[in-house]
Amino acid sequence: MPPNTHAFFELLTPQLAAICASSLSKVAQQCQKEMESDLAAVGLREGQHLHLFYPFAREQRLLLEDALCGFPLMIPGEHIIIQDLQLLPQDMQPDFASALGLRSYLGVPLYLLNQRVGSLSVAYATPHQFTPTHRELLQHHADWVSELLQLYL
């Protein structure tokens, strides 16, 4: 990655978050409904933070390492699947997820110009078996969000 690319995304993602906030919350709402999850969120990286968009226009910023939705940005892979968070080592369990009582997680990265800039995630309060249909549905929504972000470049 050229040296200026990182600085470019550091400036760009907060602006995209402001422009697309309503749409990002609606995508989270649609994912929560379609996947019958306890929580869904779209997250955009802003430096060391993740700007999270939840259903019904709720927003929050968390440190990247404290956010369960940060896993798709920090762990290589196209899908991050955790069937039971309590089976992870204690130091890998995000405090915020534990405080909310979340037990299982499915997340996919969001791309902009071939760079990971965010994630789309669903979580459940009970251990959950994720099917290929779950992964495909979430990936479909993530692709749509990536295309939306691309439109505003």
Descriptive overview:
A 6-stranded antiparallel sheet has the order 3-2-1-6-5-4. Helix 1 packs across helix 4 (about 130-150). About 40% of the residues lie in helices and about 25% in strands. By secondary structure, it is an alpha+beta fold. The model has no long low-confidence stretch (mean pLDDT about 90). Strand 2 and strand 3 form a beta hairpin. It has 4 helices and 6 strands.
SSE inventory with pairings:
Blueprint: H1 3-35, E1 39-46, E2 49-54, E3 58-63, H2 71-74, E4 80-82, H3 95-100, E5 104-112, E6 115-124, H4 132-151
Helix pairs in contact: 1-4
Going by helix content, strand content and strand pairing, the class is: alpha+beta
Mind describing the biggest β-sheet? 6 strands, antiparallel
Total number of beta strands:
6
How are strands sequenced across the largest beta sheet? 3-2-1-6-5-4
Average of the residue pLDDT scores: 88
Shape: globular
Q: What sequence of helices (H) and strands (E) makes up the elements? A: HEEEHEHEEH
Number of alpha- plus pi-helical segments:
4
Question: What fraction of residues sit in β-strands?
Answer: 25-35%
**Share of residues in helices:** 40-55%
| Low-pLDDT sequence parts | none
What are the key terms here?
alpha+beta; 153 residues; 6 strands; six-stranded antiparallel β-sheet; 41% helix; 4 helices
